[in-house]
Design brief:
The chain is an alpha/beta fold and about 300 residues long. It is built from 13 helices and 14 strands. It has a 7-stranded parallel beta sheet with strand order 5-2-1-9-10-13-14, sandwiched between helices. A 3-stranded antiparallel beta sheet has the order 7-6-8.
Length: about 300
């Protein structure tokens, strides 16, 4: 079975851990978000690509939900002691990933090529490709000063404060799908939208010209999993950004973000009462199950459940 998945960070990584157990991983292609990438301390950092790679390789720190298991932070701590920028926590093992990526890009490799090399060395069993090799970045217009912030500055350094007034994707119109993205969508038996932040993890992927259109053509094979459970965000800051886009912070609001793209949608048992409303409004099938991925077994059951909704 061939599956193409659109993925952000932690929630996606957990589900993908189950997906590669539910189906042959050699048939899985993960299309990763790059709009929260940044250059920091001279290093190219791709948080969502790295998060997915670490989850799929088994190297993720499950307690923190980000970074490498067993990592230390002596380098960044020493940098802070010396007066350098230490607001973005880079583990010592994690630094090796960023150094490898930065060197490869400086030597002329594309982000897709470097990502493939890193995945091979980390032992990732499926294919992970960025949505685009071109520069695509999320900027937020906020209340107060400075009036604009790149995503990571807002999320990590500012702690998701002050309130956001507008979300801007810079470079979207000029971006091109990375090699293999459109082919993976066209050839997939199932297309899976992972439980990632709709606004800053999945919408940037869909903003790359050609990707939304390719999914729309395959709508009958698209299933998504809600990142919102009982009106609560399990990971990240979707609750701060969905209202900015006119979306309700609920499983119904998350489904609305993908209107016209879905054939099926998975919600948690706590949102069972919303299922009929979503089915009627979005004209899709809604499945109800446990979506709280406490371990790989639950993640595997959830991945199977989502695929089976497609028939």
């Amino acid at each position: 079975m061939r599956v193409a998945a659109l993925a952000g960070g932690v929630g996606a990584g957990k589900l993908l851990r189950g997906l590669v157990r539910a189906v042959d991983p050699s048939g899985v292609t993960v299309i990763g978000n790059v709009a929260d990438d940044m250059t920091h301390l001279g290093l190219r950092i791709s948080p969502d690509l790295d998060s997915v790679a670490y989850w799929l390789s088994g190297g993720m720190d499950r307690e923190r939900g980000w970074g490498r298991a067993g990592d230390t932070f002596r380098t960044i701590e020493e940098l802070g002691r010396l007066g350098g920028e230490s607001w973005f926590s880079l583990g010592d093992l994690d630094l090796a990933t960023h150094l490898y990526r930065t060197r490869g890009l400086h030597e002329g490799a594309t982000l897709s090529e470097v990502t493939a090399e890193l995945c091979e060395r980390l032992g990732v069993s499926c294919r992970l490709i960025p949505a685009t090799d071109d520069e695509l970045r999320t900027w937020l217009r906020v209340e107060g000063e400075p009036p604009e912030l790149p995503f990571q500055r807002y999320w990590v350094e500012r702690g998701a404060e002050p309130p956001v007034r507008e979300v801007e994707l810079r470079g979207a119109q000029e971006a091109r799908p990375a090699p293999g993205v459109l082919e993976a969508i066209a050839e997939a038996d199932a297309l899976l939208i992972c439980p990632s932040n709709p606004v800053v993890s999945v919408m940037p992927i869909l903003a790359v010209p050609g990707i939304r259109e390719a999914l729309r053509e395959r709508r009958d094979r698209v299933v998504g999993v809600s990142p919102i459970v009982g009106g609560t965000v399990l990971q990240g800051m979707a609750d701060k950004l969905m209202p900015v886009m006119g979306l309700e912070v609920s499983a119904a609001g998350a489904a609305e973000a993908y209107r016209g793209l879905l054939a099926a949608w998975v919600v948690d048992e706590r949102d069972r009462d919303l299922a009929p409303k979503i089915e009627e409004r979005e004209e899709i099938r809604v499945g109800v199950t446990d979506t709280i991925m406490t371990d790989d077994e639950v993640s595997t059951r959830l991945a199977r459940f989502a695929l089976e909704l497609l028939g």
